[in-house]
Design a protein that fits this description.
It is elongated, with a radius of gyration of 24 Å. By secondary structure, it is mostly helical. The chain has helices at residues 3-10, 14-37, 45-77, 81-94. The chain has one domain.
């Protein structure tokens, strides 16, 4: 996979990336079968597809991690009204 194609995949959404992984896995399987039957001489094609699949899965993982970390930060930034009331009750009970 060329650097330009890799950069294009970084801006794609997760569903498109999952579809691309699925397509590459099918293509890799076909390539391996053809290699075993002796129809193709390109032994490096399946290895390159395997690397491409790993790269795309890495992008998916990075996007999911970024998405969950953003939602966690948003939850931490929002103070809930219940926690304030509980601290007030605890401080009054202690005094």
């Amino acid at each position: 996979m060329k650097k330009k194609n890799f950069d294009d995949l970084k801006v794609a959404d997760i569903e498109q990336l999952r579809k691309k992984v699925s397509d590459l896995q099918k293509a890799k399987t076909n390539e391996l079968l053809e290699l075993k039957m002796g129809k193709t001489k390109n032994v490096h094609a399946a290895k390159a597809m395997k690397r491409d699949i790993a790269k795309i899965k890495t992008i998916i993982r990075m996007k999911l991690t970024a998405k969950t970390s953003i939602t966690k930060t948003e939850k931490e930034d929002k103070p809930s009204g219940d926690s304030v009331n509980k601290t007030e009750v605890k401080s009054h009970a202690a005094s």
